[in-house]
């Protein structure tokens, strides 16, 4: 079987896959124009959704595409076909996302950035730090990644509250509400962490009205999708001291334009869409597992329902 790899890390992926699956004929690159003819002979593609989308627009269609991203928004565009099997990257981001979030939660409790500013100003900073113990952490998006984050945070003695598509019991959360419960749940949270995918129901949900419901001491972290946040409203909330701070990993437009207000918004930290990078070794393990399922005619992990958008 022939496999097309369309990814900026295509050389690494090709080497890892050919070593593990010598029976595959692998064609790889990151230029859809140069690979158009080869793609037509490959029923299976592995790659980044933006590059895959560019190839689909050339009228070349696969049987199955394995995305190397968790988010597949570029492939949901109205002008792209939906009559093929698409799987997103699942089961490989939980730990790196949890490490990212733990970094900034601990930095907030330990006032890391404030102490750095004090040092730059040659000021001795002996303010007592806080602790995660007893803090309420609201994870908005209690799916696979959200649950992995919750499991890592649980030993720190936090109160875990989740938001999912429906309210239900879900380990290790103390309780889980629905998206309709979000305005109520944010009122008591010390940390509000957005991990939601980009769907019509999740766009612009973090607006000024919601920020006003949050505790002035709360930290907001967006590691889900930039479309969930009304940028101007977040800036206004921070300028009015309605939030203690914000850590923003994902934005509506990336890279962020030089004139965007986030650059000058007080107590807002940008982390450049680095929260949960794809680790090639884990990605190849997922692909090989799904490849075996594909050959066996079994259901694939992370299969996308185009009507839901994830």
From TrEMBL:
Keyword NAD among UniProt keywords: yes
Alphabetical list of Pfam families matching this protein: 2-Hacid_dh_C
Keywords: NAD, Oxidoreductase
InterPro entries: D-isomer_DH_NAD-bd, NAD(P)-bd_dom_sf
Superkingdom to which the source organism belongs: Bacteria
Keyword Kinase: no
Signal peptide segment: none
Annotated ranges, domain D-isomer specific 2-hydroxyacid dehydrogenase NAD-binding: 103-275
Protein name (Swiss-Prot/TrEMBL): D-2-hydroxyacid dehydrogenase
């Amino acid at each position: 079987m022939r496999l097309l790899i369309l990814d900026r890390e295509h050389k690494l992926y090709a080497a890892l896959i050919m070593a593990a699956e010598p029976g595959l004929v692998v064609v790889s690159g990151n230029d859809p124009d140069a690979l158009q003819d080869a793609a037509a002979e490959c029923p299976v593609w592995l790659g980044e959704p933006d590059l895959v989308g560019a190839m689909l627009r050339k009228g070349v269609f696969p049987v199955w595409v394995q995305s190397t991203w968790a988010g597949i928004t570029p492939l949901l565009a109205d002008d792209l076909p939906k009559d093929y099997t698409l799987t997103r990257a699942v089961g490989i981001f939980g730990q790196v996302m949890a490490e990212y979030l733990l970094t900034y939660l601990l930095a907030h409790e330990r006032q890391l950035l404030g102490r750095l500013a004090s040092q730059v100003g040659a000021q001795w900073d002996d303010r007592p730090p806080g602790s995660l113990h007893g803090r309420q952490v609201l994870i908005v998006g209690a799916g696979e990644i959200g649950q992995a984050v919750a499991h890592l945070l649980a030993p720190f003695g936090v109160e875990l509250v989740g938001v999912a598509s429906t309210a239900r019991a879900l380990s290790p959360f103390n309780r889980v509400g629905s998206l309709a419960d979000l305005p109520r749940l944010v009122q008591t949270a010390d940390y509000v962490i957005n991990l939601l995918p980009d769907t019509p129901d999740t766009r612009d949900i973090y607006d000024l009205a919601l920020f006003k419901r949050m505790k002035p001491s709360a930290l907001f972290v967006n590691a889900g999708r930039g479309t969930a946040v009304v940028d101007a409203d977040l800036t206004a909330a921070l300028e009015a001291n309605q939030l203690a701070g914000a850590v923003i990993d994902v934005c509506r437009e990336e890279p962020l334009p030089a004139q965007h207000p986030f650059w000058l918004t007080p107590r807002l930290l940008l982390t450049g869409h680095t929260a949960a990078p794809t680790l090639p070794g884990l990605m190849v393990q997922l692909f090989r597992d799904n490849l075996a399922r594909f050959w066996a005619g079994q259901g694939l992990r992370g299969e996308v329902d185009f009507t839901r958008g994830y």
